[in-house]
Amino acid sequence: MKIKFKSQPYQTAAVEAVVDCFEGQPNTAAQVYRIDPGVRAQMRAIEDGFRNADIALPASQVLENIRKVQQRQNLPLSESLSTFVDDKGKPKKGSYKAGAAINLDIEMETGTGKTYCYIKSIFEMNKRYGWSKFIIMVPSIAIREGVAKSLEMTAEHFVESYGKKARFFIYNSKRLHELESFSSDAGINVMVINVQAFNASGADNRRIYEELDDFQSRRPIDVIAKNRPILILDEPQKMEGTATQNALPKFNPLFILRYSATHKTIHNKVHRLDAVDAFSQKLVKKIEVRGIQAKGLTGTNAYLYLEGIQISKSDPVARVEMEVKTGSGIKRVLRKVEKGRNLFDLSKGLDQYRDFVVSEIDARVDEVHFTNGAVLKAGEASGDITERDIRRIQIRETIAAHLEREKQLFAKGIKVLSLFFIDEVAKYRDYDAEDEKGEYARVFEEEYEALKAEYLGELPLEDEAYRKHLDSIGVGATHNGYFSIDKKGKLVDPKVKARGEFAGLTDDVSAYDLILKDKERLLSFEEPTRFIFSHSALREGWDNPNVFVMCMLKHSDNTISRRQEVGRGLRISVNKNGDRMDHAATVHDINVLTVVASESYKDFVGGLQKEIAENLSERPRQANAEYFEGKSITVNGSETTVTKDMAKRIERYLIKNDYIDDNDGITQAYHDAREAGTLASLPDELLDQQEQILQLIDTVFNGSQLENMMGDGRKPKAIPRNKNFEKKEFQELWQRINRKAVYQVEFDSKDLVQRCVDALDRDLVVSPLQYVVTEGTLSDELTEAQLRTGAAFKQSGIRSEESSSAHSLVSYDVIGKLAEGADLTRGTIGKILTGMSAAKFSTFQANPEQFISEASRIIKEQKATTVIEHLTYDATTDRYDTDIFPATQSGTDLTQAVGKLRNHIYDYAVVDSGVERKFVEDLDTSDEIVVYSKLPQGFLIPTPVGDYNPDWAIAFKEQSVQHIYFVAETKGSQPSLKFRELEREKIKCARKFFEEIANSVPNDRVKYDVVSDFSELMSAVRGT
Q1: 3-class DSSP state for residue 666?
Q2: CA-CA distance, 720 to 95, in Å (whole number)?
Q3: Which residues lie closer than 8 Å to 582 by C-beta, 6 or more apart?
Q4: Are strands 710-712 and 638-641 parallel, antiparallel or unpaired?
Q5: Cβ pair 167, 146 in contact under 8 A
Q6: Crossing angle of helices 155-162/114-129, nearest 10°?
Q7: CA-to-CA distance for 54 and 22, rounded, in angstroms?
Q8: 581, 411 contact by CB (below 8 A)
Q9: Which of 225, 353, 604, 679 is the least crowded, having the fewest Cβ atoms under 10 Å away?
Q10: What φ, ψ does residue 901 adopt, rounded to 5°?
Q11: DSSP characters for 173-242?
Q12: Residue 975: what pLDDT?
């Protein structure tokens, strides 16, 4: 199989941020120059070279472009092209060499596809400006091999988008003929080079600066420099050594682009997609951590390990590892224990378990209480604990997490991979042992066989396909090692750098070659390998999107951060067809990375959050008027700047509702209300911009944002489906709504044109351009601080004047702009404009930009209304499989659920807000309701504005109401948040969908409506 690539809006934004910095640069074909032939016996067949055209824009224009890009993203504005600071905001020393006159920084979180972005930027810069010579510079062989693999894998994708291929090669001082082709080829050429090729002291590394006999007495660096290449630095924070910095100018770069998640030096940052952005936009996996911690229980040395708590159809059951007396001695085994169980009896009379009787099993907080006062939390081990014990527990936990996720995703065609990082190959492959199995390989096979047998014994009958798959894979074939390989073909420890910026890493090509070569094969179900063992030094330059479980079987190492470790598994997964599993409704149900740590959940998560927070230094910490003023927000396609008055109103709103604390930091009350949809309304004058203003407030950093990114991997529980699912009333309801449909839209374009003309003549308002004249005088006593902050002038007067005409020399393609904005043909837009009244159309002269923005908004609104009005659904014969309501619902966090329930098809229901919680409580205690269910997120209704997932399916008692079968959408009562535009359009479509499927049954048709609480629901079903 092959991974499929598609153009993602967030990646396009990163590309545009770079390309727009050179707006106004003419599109010029590569400039021809004569390649230095060097000293040679024969004349060259090819003497012409093609280099990048110089930047034609003055430095001031480039800086203005950069500031525009920064302004639209609300990033700090660059003061100049040569002002550089460190990640703490301190100016860099004068000795710092940036390497080029123009330096742009692009911040992208690990797993969001920064490699894809800079490859696409290469094609886009070639398309818009004609530049064709690029060098991708990386800090290690690992990343170099990964980049080369990405160039290979994306080649066909970019041919479809741009109609051309990029020629790429890895620089090798022994293959210098490739530099000749790099120089003489007029197409897109990309050289990939690792810094060791030019900044190290070895003989091969110095060749780039030497006149070489086998290169016609030329220096390779001189041949490269003639091309004026654009340098792209991947992970630049690892290339700030003196040797590298001194070398950059020798490449004679046109400019330098730096891509990283963790910049150490800030040049001109033109794009930011940090860890918080990536998670909130659902661009990376959610993280769950299963911590393991040794704990001493007072007055006893009894060995106990609480693996977790399971929800059963009766009471919760705890999975406890303990020692048991057997005929062959004392062994540690896993046992399921319930309330009242005496561990002394279960151990066959081992004295250390005397008085250990289970008094309570609390599934909400994952605790088991004993009558002797001892309390054990999930993930805690007590008694005689060695490192080997911890490692065995980690391996077992990894296998268990893998099987849980695999069972959930197998039917969706998603291959699940688990990754073990170890620090010594001998622990996996021991060539001195008869079977060559190391300790970890042997433990893995023992634990895997035991857990596999347990899972096969408990699988429901309807999971026959997964049972067959699991049963078919032998334990020896399901795990494999990816390590360095010696000349005899044996797995060996890689040579690891001990010091410097590459400490803890290896440059062993053989190991990376194997990992990268198998990247796509590992995603196929035909490949039995599901568990990967790899050396901890092989942690950069590669990842696999389907790594769902990670386990660190290694000693603590301060050269490897937790963030680097989890980075190998953050990428969004793909199915067996290579399609990304990124549907907004289900992305974080499917894409969850479980990390099995060798420390407690609290310690691991606390350390990871601290590392992420340290790299969010540029995020504002204070939500006050000073921060909001001057920021850009886009409303209906029109960019608006937050004025001083607006900023003060926003600040007062936050203070009034206790949404900020005394230090202007965002409070938990704000985040809770934001998530629950119960935020207080903004002042009336700000209501039109409410969603954009709330998004602006969300950019202010708060610790709870990090807390939402990761959770306790032991909290999600598997909830068995209960007998309510089998009730006749629910099956009847499900049969009525279990229909898939397609929609179509047919309307007369004349009708759309007339609607748009009428709306424009009625609603289009264009304000004349205004300009403000501010007068001021220079203060008598100046300080350096005043000059830096722009406070050196004292304002003495201000006046505003209005212009009746823009008098702009800029020519506007108004038809083209409107056609692009509204996604209509130029012909249709032409008819709309010619139908407008002359008076309205003349307002274009007063303010062309606003005219285009407002007209686009109005036309889009009319188009959307017309589409919805003329939308029809046709039910198909396709239906959802029964596993949309799985026999065991995995991933239920009981701390966010309501239960134990009487009428729901599961004993617990996860709710999104206080409104939903109260709604469920009312549904469950009502005598008029027979059965109900929260509709699964896979139940989707297609609409022109995106798929829609309704909330609830409810069956009432016959004769008690007018509508027995009901599908409800629950919404809060806040008028400003009640119906956002997109959701409102989806609901209109849903009404038509349910009308269509209702017509397919003769009686007891399904009723669909939006309700805010139980009383509204009852009014709707009674027809009152």
Answers
A1: strand
A2: 65
A3: 282, 283, 572, 591
A4: unpaired
A5: no
A6: 30
A7: 12
A8: no
A9: 225
A10: -95, 155
A11: TT-THHHHHHHH--S-EEEEEETHHHHS-SHHHHGGGS-BGGGTTB-HHHHHHTT-PEEEEESGGG--SH
A12: 39
Residue the block writes with tokens 């561990």: 343
Give φ, ψ of 717 to 5 degrees.
Answer: -120, 155
* Token output for 816: 């083209």
- The answer to whether the beta carbons of residues 749 and 828 sit under 8 Å apart is yes
Q: What tokens appear for 111 in the block?
A: 């797993």
Distance (Å) of CA 643 to CA 619, 627, 647, 648, 649 = 21, 11, 6, 9, 10
Query: How many residues belong to the chain?
Result: 1024
**Which helix (H) or strand (E) segment is 504 a member of?**
none
Where is pLDDT greater, at 846 or 156? Answer: 156
Q: Where are the beta strands (DSSP E) in 527-570?
A: 531-535, 547-553
The CA distance from 259 to 256, in Å, is 10
pLDDT exceeds 70 at position 179: yes
Which of these, 432, 433, 452, 521, lies nearest to 482 by C-alpha position? 521
Bridge partners, 802 (sequence order): 770
pLDDT digits (tens, 9 = 90+) for 516-559: 666 788 899 999 999 999 876 555 556 789 999 999 887 655 55
What pLDDT was estimated at residue 977? 40
CB 770 within 8 A of CB 801: yes
DSSP secondary structure, 787-848, as one string: HHHT-SEEEEEEEEEE-S---------HHHHHHHHHT--HHHHHHHHHHS-HHHHHTTTT-H
| DSSP code per residue over 257-301 | EEEESS-SEESEEEEEE-HHHHHHTT-S-EEEEE--EEEPPTT--
Mean pLDDT of all residues belonging to the chain: 86
DSSP letter at 54 equals P
**32, pLDDT greater than 70:** yes
Q: What does the block give as tokens for 37? A: 């032939």
Q: How far apart are CA 929 and CA 312, in angstroms?
A: 25
1009 touches 1023 (CB < 8 A): no
Separation in Å, CA 215 to CA 211, 219, 948? 8, 8, 63
Please give the angle made by the CA atoms of 112, 117 and 121, to the nearest 5 degrees: 165
Give helix 439-458 / helix 464-472 axis angle, nearest 10°: 150
Q: How far apart are the first and last CA of the chain?
A: 57
Instruction: Give the whole-angstrom CA distance, residue 371 versus residue 377.
Output: 15
In the three-class reduction of DSSP (H, G, I as helix; E, B as strand; rest coil), residue 862 is classed as helix
Rounded CA gap, 275 and 478, in Å?
33
| 249: region left, alpha or beta (phi > 0 left; psi from -120 to 50 alpha) | alpha
Report the alpha-carbon distance of residue 674 to residue 669 in Å, rounded.
Answer: 8
SS (H, E, C) 745-787: ECCCHHHHHHHHHHHHHHHCCCCCCEEEEEEEEECCCCCHHHH
Q: How far is CA 854 from the centre of its chain?
A: 33
Query: At 638, is the secondary structure helix, strand, or coil?
Result: strand
- Measured CA to CA in angstroms, residue 239 lies from 83, 259, 278, 497, 739 at distances of 19, 12, 25, 15, 57
What is the Cα gyration radius of the chain? 32
| Interhelix angle 826-835/749-763, nearest 10 degrees | 50
Give the predicted TM-score (pTM) of the model.
Answer: 0.81
pLDDT band at 822 (very low <50, low <70, confident <90, very high): confident
Tokens of 777: 């005088």
- Give the containing element (helix H, strand E) for 1018: helix 1014-1022
Asked if the model's pLDDT at residue 864 lies above 60, the reply is yes
Give the DSSP per-residue string, 320-388. EEEEEEETTEEEEEEEEE-TT-BHHHHTTS-GGGTT-BEEEEETTTTEEEETTS-EEETTEEESS--HH
Q: Is 788 exposed, middle or buried (0-12, 13-18, 19+ CB in 10 A)?
A: exposed
Q: What are the b/e assignments for 617-653, b being 16+ CB within 10 Å?
A: ebbbeebbbebbbebbbeebeeebebeeebbebbbeb
